[in-house]
Specification:
The two termini are about 25 Å apart. Strand 11 and strand 12 form a beta hairpin. The strands form four sheets. The protein has an eight-stranded parallel sheet. The chain has a six-stranded antiparallel sheet with strand order 11-12-13-18-15-16. The chain has a two-stranded antiparallel sheet with strand order 3-4. The chain is of the alpha/beta class.
């Protein structure tokens, strides 16, 4: 028994040696540490057929059956892939055929096709049980095209005069005119303003959601967003606001951060991401330029949302197919970059199965769960590394090499150094890094494919196969790890002694 006890005592030592190389002490989770999975509620999973009225899966502009219960059933699926947050399209009661959620009819009710308020609360509660957060899409710019308020004389001041946006460079038009003929709410009107602020606070108090993705931010006055931010964060201090400002000028986008919006969906970088990763032999230089620009324009660039596609653009898979490339290969490279640079990765539902889709609504196809697991397994590994290695979410970034699509960059945080190599070319690449760039007498341990690169003659020679990537942890050279070998030897010896004692005792026991 003493020997078996001794072996149990040694187990913590073995666990210590098995921990990820260079992992620093676990710190309190921040929003920059999240990995977001973006779900269009109606198109993800049908968990309750009892709410399937007026559902037509053959009509891409009709309800297809996805609901709260369906998402709840798939939380473990998402958790296992490494997603820590889910972002949902609007869940509020919508007009007929408002499957997407953006034609709101009632800000205080759930859409009946999606389920009841109690079912939504259960979804949030089950997500929180799994240490996952929930972000809701919140729309304050407009309501549905046939909203009863539009013809209510008492609500006349709640709306701007009906007229289309003709000059997109005129901010007054952008804020006051009707976007896509949708009734444009007048946030300057005190009653309208208070209604929207109260509704935003109510959902937090009632359901305990963790953040809002703010739709059509540039179509709403900045002074309203300032009040909105103040009010919602008075309910929940660490409430995350992710703004959608679809604009090429970062000066315009960043001007909204003074309103209290934490981060923004990074459309500027998205254009470069799709160009770079849709096909091989495309330069990655603009991606790093984009990251540098974010540091210049935003107070907290680590809270920007990085993404490959969403519900308003063609699927990234479609672009890959048009270039006659392998979707799995291209997605792996793109996601490796997305998961390892500053910013919060946002992955649109179905990306893990390389779901195809053209323009809206084809980019909103119903999710399928029977697929090749290779890409899912790869995403799962990326998710594990992103959670285990703080350097990937909090570290400084230094570009070490970029040439015609072969990029190597370094993330450093405290005593942890991670090196990421992305070969976005059609040939194997060799990159030599000097010890001055990393450290002397160390080694790079591959965490994706198991590659091992030791420093020799002051150099680290990286060899990366075509269209492959590797994430390395910088560590002491392994060599002969004497303490580890001694510990392992002691464990095996204790085990052998224990077996001998058990055998001897069994022989002493004589049958009746």
């Amino acid at each position: 028994m003493r020997k078996s006890l001794f072996s149990l005592i040694l187990i913590p030592f073995l666990l210590f040696y098995a921990l990820p190389v260079g992992a620093v002490e676990k710190e309190e989770r921040k929003w920059q540490d999240e990995t977001i999975y973006f779900i269009m509620v109606d198109r993800f999973n049908n968990g309750d057929t009892s709410n399937d009225f007026q559902v037509n899966v053959q009509d891409p502009k009709a309800y297809n059956g996805g609901d709260f219960k369906g998402i709840t059933e798939k939380l473990d699926y998402l958790k296992d892939m490494g997603y820590t947050t889910i972002w949902l399209t609007p869940v509020f009661d919508n007009e007929e055929k408002g499957y997407h959620g953006y034609w709101i009819r009632d800000f205080y009710k759930t859409e009946e096709h999606f389920g009841t308020m109690e079912e939504f609360k259960k979804l949030v509660k089950e997500a929180h049980k799994r240490d996952m957060k929930v972000i809701l899409d919140f729309v304050v710019n407009h309501v549905g095209p046939n909203h009863p308020w539009v013809n209510d004389a008492s609500k006349k001041e709640w709306f701007h005069e009906k007229q289309p946006i003709t000059n997109w460079n005129d901010q007054k038009e952008v804020e006051n005119n009707w976007l896509y003929d949708l009734p444009d709410l007048n946030q300057k009107n005190p009653e309208t303003r208070q209604y929207l602020l109260d509704a935003a606070k109510w959902w937090i108090e009632e359901t305990d959601v963790d953040g809002y993705r703010l739709d059509t931010v540039k179509h709403v006055p900045k002074d309203f967003w300032k009040d909105f931010s103040k009010e919602v964060k008075s309910v929940k201090e660490d409430f995350y606001l992710l703004g959608e400002v679809w604009h090429d000028d970062l000066g315009v986008v960043s001007s909204y951060q003074a309103s209290g919006i934490d981060g923004f969906v990074d459309f500027a970088q998205n254009e470069h991401l799709r160009t770079a990763f849709a096909k091989p032999d495309s330069s990655l230089a603009w991606l790093f330029t984009s990251l540098d620009r974010n540091k210049a324009f935003f107070d907290r660039p680590e809270l920007m949302g990085n993404f490959m596609d969403n519900h308003d653009m063609t699927r990234f898979t479609r672009e890959i197919i048009q270039y006659k490339q392998n979707p799995g290969t291209r997605w792996k490279l793109a996601l490796t970059y997305l998961y390892t640079v500053p910013g919060i990765p946002i992955v649109y539902y179905g990306s893990e199965i390389a779901l195809d889709g053209g323009e809206d609504p084809d980019n909103r196809r119903f999710m399928g769960f029977k697929a090749d697991k290779e890409l899912i397994d790869y995403i799962t590994k990326l998710g594990e590394l992103r959670q285990q290695l703080p350097a990937l979410t909090r570290g400084n970034l230094e570009l070490l090499h970029e040439e015609n699509g072969m990029a190597v960059y370094k993330r450093t945080y405290k005593n942890e150094t991670i090196v990421v190599a992305v070969n976005n070319t059609s040939k194997s690449q060799n990159v030599s890094l000097s010890e001055d760039t990393l450290a002397k007498d160390k080694e790079l341990r591959g965490l994706l494919a198991g590659d091992l690169v030791r420093e020799r003659d002051g150099k680290y020679e990286l060899i990366i196969d075509r269209e492959k990537a590797e994430i390395y942890a910088l560590a002491d050279k392994s060599g002969l790890n004497i303490p580890y070998l001694v510990t392992m030897g002691a464990v095996y010896l204790a085990f052998v002694v224990f077996i001998i004692i058990v055998l001897k005792r069994s022989r002493r026991v004589k049958p009746d």
